[in-house]
Amino acid sequence: MTVSAPDSVLVILRLILVGSMSTSIIRLALSYVIGQKEYLQTLFSSNLCNKNYTIKIKGYAIKMSEPKDYFVHSHGLCETLKVGRGSRVWAFTHILPGATIGENCNVCDHVFIENDVVIGDRVTIKCGVQIWDGISIEDDVFIGPNATFTNDIFPRSKVYPEKFERTIICKGASLGANCTILPGITIGENAMVGAGSVVTRSVPPNVTVVGNPARILKANNL
Question: Which end of the chain is more exposed for a tag (fewer CB within 10 A), N or C?
Answer without folding.
Answer: N
